[in-house]
Amino acid sequence: MDYMICFPHAGGSANAYNWVKSEFDNAGADIDVLAYEYAGHGRKHSENYYKDYKEAVNLIASDAAGRIDEGEYENIYIMGHSMGAYIALGVGEILADKYGKNPKAIFVSGQSSPVSHPKGYGKAGKEELIEYLKTLGGMEEEILCNPKYVDFFLEPVRADMNIIDTYVFSGRKLGCRLFAAYSKNDPEIEEERLEEWELATEDLQINAFEGGHFFLFDKPKEYAEYMLKRMKEND
User: Fold this and answer.
1) How, if at all, do strands 31-35 and 2-7 pair?
2) Does the residue 164 lie in any domain?
3) Which of 9, 13, 64, 229 is the most exposed place for a label (fewest CB within 10 A)?
4) Is there a domain that residue 176 lies in?
């Protein structure tokens, strides 16, 4: 059996990625899927948020290594969307370097490059952050415009934006394949920079999809099939 860890976008909970396991199961894939829950989110809402990117990836990698030890897995795969792409990269490095658990492949999406240009949304005012989230989609505008609920939903988003603001690319090349997926209509994507993912791997494949920033949620079956196909090619 293989193992896949899925890392959510900023503000996202593990539940939002349960479709990965469902689609893999529907396809008959022998893959144990973990949709990872960040501290302070979802069922871990009582835990303190990570203070920065470095703490996040080190704590997550330690947790992931323990989970991997509990199973007898042939291959380890990592998936990360948007902020999760940077988490996937850092956790993949630590799993390989510190724990001797080398990912077979990493799937990233919703980011143009491993080299980030922080936008400072972790410290942005409420209105600025709301306007930014509206451009990305993925959150109901009724929630973003409702003063009764908006602060509750913005709290984990802001905590995660701080992780993005403190992320710095290590410059290290992973010893595995990296698949970078993007949407042609994603306002976050600069297509001319996608080749920069080669800075993080010797074996890069770039794949385009239709849709916006959260394209994989609109086409979960298509995205799951894409990952399964790449895994099979990677054997």
Assistant:
1) parallel
2) no
3) 229
4) yes
- What pLDDT is recorded for position 127? 84
Strand partners, 205: 179
> In DSSP terms, which residues pair with 80 in a beta bridge?
7, 108
Across 28-37, b (16+ Cβ under 10 Å) vs e yields ebebbbbbbb
- pLDDT at site 224: 98
Q: In angstroms, rounded to a whole number, what is the distance separating the alpha carbons of residues 17 and 214?
A: 12
Nearest CA to 170 among 115, 112, 117?
115
Phi first, then psi, for residue 106 (nearest 5°) are -125, 135
Measure the CA–CA gap between 107 and 43, rounded to whole angstroms: 25
Residue 221 forms part of a structural domain:
yes
In a domain, 50, yes or no: yes
Check if the beta carbon of residue 55 is closer than 8 Å to that of residue 94: no
The whole-number mean pLDDT for each consecutive block of 10 residues of the chain, a chain of 235 residues, reads 96 94 96 97 95 97 95 94 97 96 97 87 84 80 72 89 94 96 94 97 96 94 97 82
Structural domain boundaries, residue 21: 2-116+169-230
Q: Is residue 80 within 8 Å of 6, Cβ to Cβ? A: yes
What is the pTM assigned to this prediction?
0.94
Helices 126-136 and 150-165, packing angle to 10 deg: 80
| CATH code: domain of residue 92 | 3.40.50.1820
Query: For the chain, what is the domain count?
Result: 1
Q: In the chain, what is the greatest distance between 2 CA atoms, to the nearest angstrom?
A: 50
CA–CA separation, 106 and 112 (whole Å): 15
